[in-house]
Amino acid sequence: MRQPRGQERAITANRQTSWAFADAFVAEDDALRWARDRSRDAGLRSVSPGTGAALRLLAATADAKAVAEIGTGTGVSGIYLLQGLRPDGVLTTVDPEPDRQQFAKQAFRAAGFAANRARFIPGRALDVLPRLADGGYDLVFCDGDPLESLDVLAESLRLLRPGGIVCFEGVFADGRTVDSAAQPAEVLRLRELLRAVRESTELLASLLPVGDGLLCAVRRG
């Protein structure tokens, strides 16, 4: 029997266990584990295995040759994206911390990717993205400052080709996005992002319950 529109099923312990199982379904290799360890040492949160696998699947489904990543971190998400890219594809990854990008370079090399498969650009997303080519990307993955998410969305739509995909990581904000209690500015901005993507006539959207929430949308042709 279908659930009445506007009502949500209770989140039972079994459903939580199933979500956890799905999020950890994909086994990770030594290169990914090394990158995760570096992320943990730096006090960063890297994408979950389920989120990484979803990004890899989306890149492969899009037959992506050019992907832009906002938030290099230590390379966990980048490895997954490179695994989904075409063999001649290039990942352009942006991060304000060059030291983290050095870890990502090591991780990519350990994962077997040639140096020319990734282009590293240090800097703030909103300083770098305007310099990238209009319509030149198949997928844009955003894992940066939530306060910049609406501006990053606008830039991402400019960068994407018709049929390209934009993804935002962390939109659940550890459950605060749906919490009715008073929330900080970054959570309020994530709510605005979700509303903007859902209501856009330019996008077809889906919210995936992997990791801390992965918001995905396809730019209509």
| Rg measurement, Å | 17 Å
Structural class estimated from helices and strands: alpha/beta
Which stretches are poorly predicted, pLDDT < 50 over at least 5 residues?
none
Strand adjacency order, main sheet: 3-2-1-4-5-7-6
Nearest-integer average pLDDT: 94
Largest sheet: 7 strands, mixed
Task: Please provide the ordered H/E string of secondary-structure elements.
Answer: HHHEHEHEHEHEHEE
Q: How large a portion of the residues is in β-strands, by DSSP E?
A: 15-25%
- Spatial gap, N to C terminus: 35 Å
Q: Helical region count?
A: 8
- Overall shape: it is globular
Beta strand count: 7
List keywords for this structure.
7 strands; 8 helices; 221 residues; alpha/beta; globular; 7-stranded mixed sheet
What does this structure look like?
This protein is an alpha/beta fold and 221 residues long. 40% of the residues lie in helices and 20% in strands. The chain contains eight helices and seven strands; from the N terminus they run αααβαβαβαβαβαββ. It has helices at 13-23, 30-41, 49-61, 76-84, 98-110, 125-128, 149-159, 185-199; strands spanning 66-70, 90-95, 118-122, 137-142, 160-169, 203-208, 214-219. The mean pLDDT is 94. This is Methyltransferase. Pfam families: Methyltransf_3. It comes from Streptomyces xanthochromogenes. Keywords: Methyltransferase, S-adenosyl-L-methionine, Transferase.
